[in-house]
Amino acid sequence: MGEGEPRDGSERAASTGEPTGRGSPPADVVLPCLDEAAALPWVLDRIPAGWRAIVVDNGSTDGSADIAARLGARIVTETRTGFGAACHAGLRAADAEFVCFCDCDGSLDPALLVPMVDSVRSGAADLVVGRRRPTARGAWPPHARAGNAAVVRMLRRRTGVRLGDIGPLRAARRTALLDLALTDRRSGYPLQMVVRAADAGWRISEVDVPYTPRSGRSKVTGTWRGTWTAVRDMRAVLRTPSEGIR
Ligand SMILES: Nc1nc2c(ncn2[C@@H]2O[C@H](COP(=O)(O)OP(=O)(O)OP(=O)(O)O)[C@@H](O)[C@H]2O)c(=O)[nH]1
Ligand SMILES: [Mg+2]
């Protein structure tokens, strides 16, 4: 399958198994969404049974919010642009004991969140992060991987936490996440979550997750400029001393 080529739901489902959340505690899945009409049907179909999808519409002009509402998601509208603004609006709207985050572009399978939430529930970890493992060329362009690797090295120097990826697929307890009082509203949001969690003594664990080519148009990592902006946002997070961000 080539880069950017749309995949249909059956192919993705075959690669990762059927969605299942039965037997797991209900969780809310926050899905930041900026023009993801092409990906929404597959993404929402993969939300584990009994869980709630919270699609945070961040100024979409392609009808994403209507599509998501028709497919049964809760819609939250966030007018402030930025990945972090969308994620945080979703976190604030959530009310389940466990909150997950997942990109809404079809690159990550929300069904993979079930064991991640189980790990938090069992007390094995406070934050579980999916380490992206690309399944095809083009899923994760080399410049984006290089930027991510640099950020991971800086994270380790800053906190001692060893992660292979600042991945967007995550699970944690809702109240604990709110207590982190995250302030970044751009691309630094996922990194700030890890930094503050580390500073607060959370146990952070990582699991491998398949990363497939996104559906629709790339907004960040598909371009050098987008990647550079993301790395700049993340460096700003790492430069902020712990006392200054509490
Ligand atoms: N970049 C960006 N993404 C947003 C925003 N608001 C919501 N999103 C969503 O956040 C998720 C992650 O953004 P992506 O565009 O996939 O960013 P990425 O995965 O780093 O890079 P690409 O997939 O290559 O574009 C997607 O579901 C977007 O639709 C925003 O203001 N900026
Ligand atoms: Mg993406």
Automatic annotation (TrEMBL):
Query: Which InterPro entries does this entry report, sorted A to Z?
Result: Glyco_trans_2-like, Glycosyltransferase_2, Nucleotide-diphossugar_trans
Q: Where is this region: Disordered?
A: 1-27
Indicate the segments forming the Glycosyltransferase 2-like domain, all copies: 29-175
The protein's superkingdom reads Bacteria
Q: Where is the composition biased (Basic and acidic residues)?
A: 1-11
Membrane-spanning parts: none
Regarding protein family, the annotation reads: Belongs to the glycosyltransferase 2 family.
PANTHER family in the record: RFBJ PROTEIN, UNDECAPRENYL-PHOSPHATE 4-DEOXY-4-FORMAMIDO-L-ARABINOSE TRANSFERASE-RELATED
Q: What is this protein called?
A: Glycosyltransferase family 2 protein
Task: Name its species.
Answer: Streptomonospora wellingtoniae
